[in-house]
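QA checklist item 7 of 12: single-chain prediction sanity check.
[x] sequence parsed
[x] length recorded as 247
[x] structure emitted
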Amino acid sequence: MKKWIAFWSILKKDINNYYLKPPNISWGIIFPLSWTLMQIIRSSGEMTINDIRDLLPGLMAMSILFGTTSMLAVTITFERRGRSFERLLLAPISISTLVLAKISGAIIFGIFNSFVPVIFSSFFVGLSGISWARVLLAILLIAVTSTLMGLMIAVSAKEVFEAQTFSNFFRFPMLFLCGLFVPISSLPVFLRPLSFVLPLTYGTDMLKGAINYNSTLPPILSTFILLVFTLGLFMYCRYNIRRKWIL
């Protein structure tokens, strides 16, 4: 019971202090909305219904990726600079509880971001025939793995600009390597192995299968791989925090 109280207290504090601030809410809406509009405008009005649905999985995955990693870069680095993160480490709670509490707000924020392109696209195309259960599962797994990658980067940086810079080394290559907008089969042969060591590849493939039924991997396999990534990233983040501040 004490763990849940501590978990909820940290999550509530993060939501009130960071995620419910107007600039962050507007970022969560404007960023995915601007990318969606850019793709539609780029087509000069020639984009078909199938084209929009083909773009939707990539837009959703990208919105989650940038939303989760950007918010953790802010929350963790601000708290490290104000030494409130160190005070949390002195609290009588486990590292696992602390990590879960810190990533939960970013996961919720990422899930919120993912539905902005969906809502906007619904004004242009019909969304019937989508397997929403598989979409929700894919969104959750992408949000969790992206958040843990963001935490891994954030605990290694001292300032927000450092965390954002480090994040960009991961985020922008993933836009091209993970099949968001460019099929992996179209990539040069020497780059394709890199695609399959990135968790976003499997989440995007799950979204494509749920929305357009054109996934390249079985959903069960993608889910299993993402769960392995989740466990591995969680263990690494917990170890890294313990190594830097406790041991």
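[x] summary fact logged: The mean pLDDT is 83.
[ ] second reviewer sign-off
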